[in-house]
Amino acid sequence: MSTLAPERPATGPVRPRRRRPAGIGDRLTLRRAAPMIPAAVLLVLFMAGPIIYSLDLAFTDKAIRGDGASKTSFVGVSNFTDALTDGDFWNSVVLTILFTLISAVIGQNLLGLLLALLMERANRVISFAITSIVIAAWILPEVVAGYLLYTFFAEGGSLDGILGLVGIPPQTLLFSAPIVAVSFANVWRGTAFSMLVYSAALGAIPGDVQESAAMDGAGPMRRFTSITLPLLRPALATNLMLITLQTLSVFGLIFIMTGGGPDRKSQTLPLYMYEQAFSYGQLGYGTAVALLLLLIGAAASLVYLRLLPEEEKR
Amino acid sequence: MTSTAAADAASAPASPSAASAPGPATARPRRGHKGGKGPRERTAELASSLAMIVIGVAFLIPLLWVVLASFNESATLSVSWPEKWSLGNFRAIWNTETTFRPLGNSLLLCGGATIVTMVAAVLCAYPFSRYRFAAKRPLLLTVIFATGLPITAIMIPVYSLFVQVNLIDSMFGAILFLGASSLPYAIFLTKGFMDSVPVEIEESAWTEGAGVLRTLWSVVLPLMRSGLSVATIFTFVGMWGNFFVPFMLLLSPDHLPAAVTLYTFSSQYGQVAYGQLAAFSIFYSLPVVALYLIMGRSLGTGFAAAGGVKG
């Protein structure tokens, strides 16, 4: 857990400090706060600004062309009600949840945990080589990853080639089940992160606890469920929260691989939002969808916070 | 291709806050305690190694494609051994239009934004780390909350605002937004590293009458050099891979960074030249891989909050 929480030094108890002669550790004065101004200005203008503006924009009919373009007017909650009554919106919600479940909650999370556990036991050279490959998949730029996985799943791509070797006909997942293809792609890209998180958490579990349990006659399964898993709980919650938020907002990977298609079959909320705002020019409506996306993220975060043991909650 | 040092750090994670926890040095010998390995351990090692190899091969295939296809002038979508190895693909994209300008734009965009982010983050982290004030905790919590904010969700209002203030297609505007969007995470990391520099060292500087900036520049920053480079590399790498922000905020081909030109690659040539696409992907990925290798063992100190890196 310790490696997991760079936030700890930030919010943990302030180190006890002795009274010192000159300024340090004292109260912040206006003069001393001056260096914070550039960051404050940037954050207010470019982060807080757009967020506040989005709260306004989502209630207007602002558009790139058409009615809302020349004269923007307040339309109340109609953007939200439009979304909630639109079949394509719900299609995207279902696909987003599916994508997040398959690729983050199940795929990256379990595969990352499995790899972290295997790393501890496998031959060191093999473990080193394999983790290097998994990490390479993680550090490549999003667009490159998108193209690499496109070639893997495309008609005549590597997957079909491999399946052909064992006599299975081509699957063309990008057409038949694009959401599955992009989910696997996201697992490929994101597993390293979970692997690193879990490997750090496992490294922090004291070895002698495991040893004494083994001496008391606890088998590997028993040791895993009664010792490792409970100690991993904070890491589990943190990892799930981070990868869920990341996965909910994945845009480039899907955009490159399928563009949301065919026939909206891989159009998750970020792609739906993009289509509405730019293909149809409905900026107000797109912003409303973005706010609903944020709401889903917040709801997921609340669920994961409950997973955290009491002492980890702030 | 693979990041050896990064993996090294993965098996030996270390962090400022993990200093007190039993490190990997004590965790490692655990599996072989009491002398040599018994048959049980050996079976476990064999089974684990085999399982890792199976998973690793699945991860390797797309990576193999990019390497093999880049040397194959008649590359297809499938992984295949080039009949004739050639540098033709690299030669074909070795020009300003396709490669140098986009990579130069990426460097300008991400380099500029990294400077903006790091200067603002260091200046902001110092008072956070050194002084007491009532709003400290709420402000820090806001910063932490902002690190998790999906940038995807605010791109439409950002686009709309940029159109209104005429910053669309401006490199300057994109640099400022990209810089601001990675600021929360950078402040958060920098403050953590700064906290681990003992305050006592600054006292002598203070008693000699050095001001805040002077102390920060010549006392604190040199002492947190490695932490600072981790934060800088993370910031840069996150921006280098970012597609959505430049895709939305920059329009003219002269301004587009590699992340976006790679997307337009296929349409430029009609028929997709997969070998050239692979070669370009390699050029575009190299800086990031190199930076990870440089960061090496200190990767462990910063990876956990890599939320900003992935998007």
UniProtKB/TrEMBL annotation, chain A:
Taxonomic superkingdom: Bacteria
A Pfam short name: BPD_transp_1
Domain ABC transmembrane type-1, residue spans: 94-304
Record keywords: Cell membrane, Membrane, Transmembrane, Transmembrane helix, Transport
PROSITE patterns with a match to the protein in the record: ABC_TM1
Subcellular location: Cell membrane
Major subcellular location class: membrane
Region annotation Disordered: where it falls in the sequence: 1-21
Transmembrane segments: 36-55, 93-118, 125-150, 162-188, 231-257, 277-305
SUPFAM superfamilies: MetI-like (SSF161098)
Membrane topology, as annotated: Multi-pass membrane protein
Similarity field: Belongs to the binding-protein-dependent transport system permease family.
PANTHER family in alphabetical order: BLR7065 PROTEIN, SPERMIDINE_PUTRESCINE TRANSPORT SYSTEM PERMEASE PROTEIN
Name of the featured protein: Sugar ABC transporter permease
Source organism of the structure: Brachybacterium kimchii
From TrEMBL, chain B:
Keyword Protein biosynthesis part of the UniProt annotation: no
Name recorded for this polypeptide: Carbohydrate ABC transporter permease
Annotated spans, Disordered: 1-41
Ranges that cross the membrane: 50-71, 106-126, 138-159, 171-189, 228-252, 272-294
Family: Belongs to the binding-protein-dependent transport system permease family.
Topological category with respect to the lipid bilayer: Multi-pass membrane protein
Coiled coil stretches, renumbered: none
Biased composition (Low complexity): 1-27
Regions of compositional bias (Basic residues) in chain numbering: 28-37
Subcellular location: Cell membrane
Keywords: Cell membrane, Membrane, Transmembrane, Transmembrane helix, Transport
Superkingdom of this protein's organism: Bacteria
Source organism per UniProt: Brachybacterium kimchii
First-listed, main subcellular location of the protein, grouped into a coarse class: membrane
Cited InterPro entries: BP-dep_ABC_trans_perm, MetI-like, MetI-like_sf
Domain ABC transmembrane type-1 as annotated: residue spans: 103-295
